[in-house]
């Protein structure tokens, strides 16, 4: 099963290496990984996507939770959550004219970054399935010269936040 795991961790040297090492020592591949600071510069949020049995991932998440530098963590796939991925695509040698590409992108809620017919560049955000479908339609319209995907990012629905995610004066009720 596919899992999206969100971890709040101390923003210190070596923390990411220790956390990702838990996956490699158990033979699990990380499909995507994103790390960025939170509102508190001492805390970073790591979002990773991996696949494996529920039992094995439960063991890994328990090990992550035991790490001294981990503030809080959540397997997003165990609850209701939003999940999005960003893709930037540069289309070379388009088989259609630029106006058709712009129309398709506008209809798909994508943003045209560069409408150069020789290097048409667009950004699109959506679920992983939506990103896959969008890329497939662009591939049918021309040759993809470059593509950059962010990997999935996730956040819980409702008022659920990870401990330490909000600053103490933010008024968040837990």
Short account of what is shown:
This protein has 174 residues and is α+β, with helices and mostly antiparallel strands. The protein is built from 4 helices and 9 strands, in the order E-H-E-E-H-E-E-H-E-E-H-E-E.
How would you characterize the overall build of this protein?
- The structure is a single chain.
- With 174 residues, the chain is α+β, with helices and mostly antiparallel strands.
- It contains four helices and nine strands, in the order E-H-E-E-H-E-E-H-E-E-H-E-E.
- It has helices at residues 15-24, 54-66, 98-107, 128-141, and strands at 2-10, 30-37, 43-51, 70-75, 81-92, 111-114, 120-126, 143-149, 153-156.
- The strands form two sheets. Strands 5, 6, 7, 8 and 9 form a five-stranded antiparallel sheet that branches. It has a four-stranded antiparallel sheet with strand order 2-3-1-4, covered by helices on one side.
- Strand 6 and strand 7 (120-126) form a beta hairpin.
- It starts with a strand and ends in an 18-residue tail after the last strand.
- Residues 167-174 have low confidence and may be disordered.
Question: Characteristics of this structure?
Answer:
five-stranded antiparallel β-sheet, 27% helix, alpha+beta, 174 residues, 4 helices, four-stranded antiparallel β-sheet, 9 strands
Distance, first to last CA: 29 Å
Please report the number of helical segments. Answer: 4
- What is the strand content? 35-45%
Percent helix range: 25-40%
Shape: elongated
The parts where pLDDT drops under 50 for at least 5 residues are 167-174
Radius of gyration: 19 Å
The H/E string reads EHEEHEEHEEHEE
Q: How many DSSP-defined strands?
A: 9
Class based on secondary structure composition and strand pairing: alpha+beta
Main sheet record: 5 strands, antiparallel
Average pLDDT, to the nearest integer? 89
